[in-house]
Amino acid sequence: MYGVVEYNQEGKPKCEICGKHFDRLLSHVRQKHNMSALEYKKQFGLDVKKGICSEKSRKLSSIKAYENYEKVIADNLINKALRHVL
Question: Are 32 and 59 in contact (CB under 8 A)?
């Protein structure tokens, strides 16, 4: 069983170190507490395979990923694969 991430009324996850809420909690932890996402999750008993962000941030990331889908496919899959073959 994993620990539970607390969210405020705006849907932002709470930092267990400073008690403040952020859209992208793990970015905050890395920048302000000099701790990796893995270290934070292990310290507070959280699932290391799950991200910790607000629903707003998750949706924005999803939109950005779809907007860049063609570029990502071309750059990461096709071009990098060709470099390995050649």
Answer: no
